[in-house]
Structure formats: structure tokens, C-alpha cells
Structure prediction request, 44 residues.
Amino acid sequence: MDRSTMNSITKIFDDTIKTDHKIITEEAAKSILKNIEFQYQDSH
Prediction:
């Protein structure tokens, strides 16, 4: 993965953690990973 992909992943996690009061549930983690997969596939 390149730097911009890592940055966007980090941003997704940061945003999710902020909105979820620093608690990531299993469901939230799954949806984050799905978002990352889609973004990664779109960019390649």
C-alpha cells in the first residue's frame, strides 16, 4: 500500500474513533475494513 492509502485508512479510523467515543465495536471494525477494501480496489 502506498502512503496516501495508509493516510486515508488512518483518517477513517480516526474519524470512526472520534464519532464512537473511542470505542470500536466489532461491527464498526468490519464496516471500516469493508470501506478500506472498496477504496483500495477503486484506486487500483
